[in-house]
Amino acid sequence: MVQIALSRFKDFLKEHYPMYEFGIKPELITKDMMEQFVAYLQSRSVGEGAKSIFQRFKKIIHYAIDHDVMLKDPCKGVTCKADSQILRKDVLSPEEIQRLIACHYDNENPNVRRAFIFCLYCGLRFCDVKDLTYKNIDYANKLLKFEQNKTKGHSASSGVVIPLNDGLLSLVGEPPADGNKDALIFNLPSYESCCKSVKRWVKRAGIDKHISWHCARHSFAVNILNNGANIKTVASLLGHSGLKHTEKYTRAVDKLKEEAINSLPELKF
């Protein structure tokens, strides 16, 4: 995410300050520039994407201040707002997920494919699925047990337990023959590379949606709510400490129901 933040800032300079395209002195980064940068991020990202990138960029600025590279904080007083209760990212419907599973193409990465499908059916973040080892799988009880990287050491709800059916266990596969349970289940390349693979895959499947890796987590939550799961169950499966962060999915389901009703032929008396 820090790399993405730096890349976006370079793109911003190239478009709005071409004279600084190949480098800028720290003292030339001003509050006005940061306000323009936020507007640029919001024009390029959906949902909480712009806010998340700006938060990472501020970490870079604070690091520079702490190490005497910069004297003032140009981000002070500059905010990038997003309504966290609105799900702006696209989700894949069960029918679209089946189209994705049925779609194969030349030079596809089988590990990316397996891991993304696993996230669609378990709701894991990329940072968690990439670190899964066979030690996380309880084969006897058909359970996945892991600590969320995002909240490990900060929340009592960082531990997550997810039941696995036979299909998911087949995606995981058996532990290595040498018995090394510390081996990674999905040997994945970088986050950016995985997202590019997913976008290519979605396009080949004929799905006209902007799908990032994190959309798998959103799709999982929306689809199980749509199938009748209660909000507390969904919160538990996602590893949320409360219901606040889960509520945006119920709003997304309500919107889907409204769209379904509105898709019916107009009733005329």
TrEMBL record:
Keyword DNA-binding: yes
Domain of life: Bacteria
CDD domains for this protein: INTN1_C_like
UniProt lineage: Bacteria, Pseudomonadati, Bacteroidota, Bacteroidia, Bacteroidales
Organism: Bacteroides mediterraneensis
Keyword annotations: DNA recombination, DNA-binding
Ligase in keyword set: no
Family stated for the protein in its record: Belongs to the 'phage' integrase family.
Domain Tyr recombinase as annotated: residue spans: 87-262
Name of the featured protein: Site-specific integrase
